[in-house]
Write a sequence for this structure.
């Protein structure tokens, strides 16, 4: 039987479910940065999709952001 795959297509290598967090191996900085980069890519993609399917709301959000930037004091 094949091992379960996660959303990135890699096989799971973590500990078994039910093992307390303290007993798991700490993740390396490279793994954390890789997961963070993947998350940020997916977040950006989701925001771009939302802007395409709701152009009026996206325009209103851009206008609000522009107003905030104009009224911000340094």
């Amino acid at each position: 039987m094949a091992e379960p795959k996660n959303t990135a297509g890699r096989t799971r290598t973590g500990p078994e479910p039910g093992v307390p967090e303290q007993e798991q191996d700490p993740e390396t900085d490279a793994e954390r940065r890789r997961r963070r980069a993947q998350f940020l890519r997916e977040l950006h993609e989701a925001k771009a999709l939302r802007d395409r399917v709701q152009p009026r709301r996206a325009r209103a959000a851009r206008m609000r952001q522009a107003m905030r930037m104009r009224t911000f004091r340094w």
In short: The CA atoms of residues 3 and 9 lie 11 Å apart.
